[in-house]
Design brief:
This protein is an alpha/beta fold. The protein folds into 2 domains: about 5-200, 3-Layer(aba) Sandwich (Rossmann fold); about 210-449, TIM Barrel (Alpha-Beta Barrel), CATH 3.20.20. About 40% of the residues lie in helices and about 20% in strands. The protein has helices at about 5-15, 45-60, 75-85, 125-135, 155-160, 170-180, 185-205, 210-220, 235-245, 265-275, 290-300, 305-310, 320-325, 350-360, 375-385, 415-420, 430, 435-449, and strands spanning about 20-25, 30-35, 65-70, 90, 105, 115-120, 140-150, 165-170, 225-230, 250-255, 280-285, 310-315, 335-340, 365-370, 390-395, 400, 405, 410-415, 425. α15 runs parallel beside α16. It binds 6-sulfanyluridine-5'-phosphate (S5P). 6-sulfanyluridine-5'-phosphate (S5P) binds near residues 371, 373 and 426.
């Protein structure tokens, strides 16, 4: 390694941009090192040196624009753009919750190409996500420059998708330099290398709780990925439809508070159907209050939902206490967190969705998966890729063809939902509003599996 680069690594170390000790990561894992390159921006010399090194690395590549991923990489991208005399554009960090605002800020011509700069690469997934944002705005992205590559093999992952990764420093190089300068000893280095390898393994753990396993078994046994949403207001219609559909569905989704004639006999009868036709009962209650309140709503009141339902829907907005309030001390119950709704202009933006997925992963013993929606295969696939392994994506707002209703519901086709990776589709009016219910349920079942 050249002198300039090892000198740069030492400077990163001296400014605390690379730290060793014990750090709790977002995933809950404890890491023996931590890289925080935001510090670079507070040291003008170091920032300039970073930009010079990146310029050296990318100056022979062909691109029309320079971009940095906000916030950390934006200042250095600005310097790089200046040095190369290329225009700077960048993608919004937060997706607009609604509206049709272009995610790319700045002036650019469609069809031209952009170099994207980021500070750190761990898995490569966030870079791929950014590339997709640029691509959907009509720009070409092929080259990525990062300061530190601390991944196992992000370059390999990116190259499979047609991207080139140019990193200034790889983790092993960084450790070598710090060892040569007596900042690290062999035991610490092997601890770090072991952590990087095993954390990748930890990320590939499948979080499958007992309820999820039951759902997965039913999908295979029934050769169906169908959840029927039976939103009718009386028991007579309810069981008439259930008679024609029960054997083909994996779960039956209810809104018991829609029924005008709810009583104890309804629950008894429903449980008999569930046992006879082997489906799970899914009360779509969408709990959204503090732990103490939801516990009472779930376990008490006139509906006593916890007594008869297998799964319920939960909003994560009050924080993780809601999951404790609902499920603590109960067996064989699980929730689905709402990660992205199907209704038009809903306020769940990318950041919200990401936080919900983090909450769900941490509470995987009671979170079987997520309610999520997308209006295209690419959007659904992007969401699915972020879902921790072993947890499920349930997609509502599904019909045979894309459609909408007059109150903001958006429908994506079954084909797109399944191609995008939905584990289960939630279908209501696509089936229950049809004259021939039996025929409709068979169509959805076969299209889903
Ligand atoms: O984002 C969502 C989440 C849910 S659970 N969008 C939804 O439509 N749902 C539910 O799915 C909704 O409450 C309804 O019960 C069902 C969709 O019904 P459909 O008749 O529009 O298919």
């Amino acid at each position: 390694m050249n002198f300039q680069l090892s000198n740069y690594i030492l400077k990163l170390y001296e400014t605390n941009a690379i730290k060793f000790g014990e750090f709790t990561l977002k995933s809950g894992l404890k890491s023996p090192f931590y890289i925080d390159l935001r510090h670079i921006n507070s040291h003008p010399e170091l920032l300039k040196q970073t930009a010079d090194l990146i310029v050296d690395q990318v100056k022979k590549l062909h691109f029309d624009y320079v971009s940095g991923i906000p916030y950390t990489a934006l200042p250095v991208a600005t310097l790089v753009a200046d040095k190369l005399q290329k225009p700077l554009i960048y993608a919004r960090k937060e997706e607009k919750a609604y509206g049709t605002k272009n995610p790319i800020i700045g002036q650019y011509e469609k069809g031209k190409s952009c170099l994207i700069i980021d500070d750190l690469i761990t898995t490569g997934e966030s870079i791929i996500e950014t590339a997709e944002k640029f691509q959907s705005a009509g720009l070409k992205t092929k080259d990525f420059a990062v300061i530190i590559d601390r991944s196992n093999d992000a370059a390999g992952l990116l190259s499979k998708q047609g991207f080139n990764l140019h990193s200034l420093i790889k983790l092993d190089q960084m450790l070598d330099v710090l060892k040569q300068h007596h900042k690290l000893d062999d035991s610490k280095i092997s601890q770090i290398k072991f952590f990087v390898k095993s954390s990748n393994k930890a990320e590939s753990i499948a979080y499958t709780n007992t309820v999820t396993q039951k759902i997965l078994d039913l999908i295979e046994q029934k050769k169906s990925r169908l959840v029927l949403s039976l939103d009718v207001d009386n028991q007579h219609d309810f069981f008439k439809i259930l008679d024609q559909t029960a054997e083909h569905i994996v779960m039956l989704k209810t809104h018991v508070d829609i029924l005008t004639d709810f009583d104890e006999t309804f629950i008894r009868r429903l449980r008999e159907y569930a046992d006879k036709y082997r489906f799970l009962i899914f009360e779509d209650r969408k709990f959204a209050d503090i732990g103490n309140t939801v516990r009472k709503q779930y376990r008490g009141g006139i509906y006593r939902i916890a007594d008869w339902s297998d799964v319920v829907t939960v909003h994560g907005i009050p924080g993780e206490g809601i999951l404790q309030g609902l499920f603590e001390g109960l067996k064989c119950k699980a929730g689905f967190l709402l990660a992205k709704m199907s209704s038009k202009a809903n306020l769940m933006n990318e950041t919200y969705t990401r936080k919900i997925l983090e909450m769900g992963q941490q509470h995987h013993s009671v979170v079987s998966g997520y309610i999520g929606h997308g209006t295209s295969v690419a959007e659904i696939r992007r969401l699915k890729n972020k879902i921790p392994k072993g947890q499920l994506l349930l997609m509502p707002g599904v019909k045979l063809q894309s459609d909408k209703d007059s109150l903001g519901q958006q429908y994506t086709s079954v084909r797109e939902a399944i191609e995008g990776g939905a584990d289960l589709i939630i279908v209501g009016r696509g089936i229950i509003a049809q004259n021939d219910i039996k025929k409709a349920v068979m169509k959805y079942k076969s299209a889903s599996y």
